[in-house]
Amino acid sequence: MLPTIAQALAAVRFDAVDVRVLLRHACGVDDAYLIAHADDKLSAEHSAAFAALVARRAAGEPVAYIVGTREFFSLEFKVTPAVLIPRPETELLVEFALESIDVERACSVLDLGTGSGCIAISIAKNCPGAKVVAIEQSAAALAIARENAALHATVNLELIASDWYSALGGRRFDVIVANPPYVAAGDPHLSEGDLPAEPVAALVAGDDGLDCIRAIVQAAPRYLNPDGWLAIEHGYDQAERCRELLRAAGFHEVFSREDLAGIERISGGQWRAS
Question: What is each CA distance from 20 to 26, 39, 89, in whole angstroms?
């Protein structure tokens, strides 16, 4: 006997939001349809498709990889196991960049390690006057970023294959943002949630998780315009150490910002030419 939409949703003991995403995907409908047709029976085709998706989730596959998309900063992005899954806390980097940009004049923004391109594309779409450059070392990730840039017709974005700053030459920027790898090797969190399915190279950064952050902070002054800003996402317990790195590199107005959970999630500072 085929279940109704409401029964199908209630029968699966996953996170309720995840279950709705999977059922929407299986049926090719939106949330409004699920609500309006809660008492309708699923077709055999949709019921089988939903069961298959639920089985994949039960086996540990992240919902974002199953459906192939994830929303970020009110935009939909393609995601695959080649890239990190965009997370709400990372939107802090976009918000900071948009606050730091002077919309009355031409400006430049660099996104280091762009992955799916969600940060760079969100900045570019919300500030059409900005010239946004996004770099990525992984060829597979860069291909996904290019697809997302095309999907959103992001004309003010340049995507470059680069190991951090190595391909940038003498270019300088008004704002640099980065969501680099920042998990310590052997951290138990790597075996939790969606992390086991995500690319290790985009997560792990040395014994203390700060290898990439150190490299980004130390080199940033060579790529910032006078009074330019750097902001980096980091781990839940790394804010103080990131502030120390920024001050040691000569940054001023060093800060950290909390995410919605009250965790210091990004840190940064301003570069002033001497």
Answer: 10, 15, 22
What are the angstrom distances between the C-alpha of 255 and each of 23, 161, 243? 42, 30, 7
Question: Can you state the angle between helices 239-248 and 211-219, rounded to 10 degrees?
Answer: 30
Q: What is the CATH number of the domain that holds 130?
A: 3.40.50.150
130-184 pLDDT, tens digit per residue, is 999 999 999 999 999 999 999 999 999 999 999 999 999 999 999 999 999 999 9
Cα diameter, the chain: 75
pTM, full prediction = 0.94
Read off the tokens for 52.
């298959």
| Helices (H), ranges, 135-177 | 139-151
In a domain, 67, yes or no: no
Query: pLDDT tens-digit profile of 18-72?
Result: 999 999 999 999 999 999 999 999 999 999 999 999 999 999 999 999 999 999 9
**What domain count does the chain have?**
2
Same domain, 135 and 246: yes
Q: Is 64 a domain residue?
A: no
CB burial of 62-77 (b: ≥16 within 10 Å; e: otherwise) equals bbbbbbebbebbebeb
Which range of residues forms the domain containing residue 187?
A: 83-271
Same domain, 22 and 135: no
CA atoms within 13 A on the CB side of 7: 9
- Is residue 70 a part of any domain in this protein? no
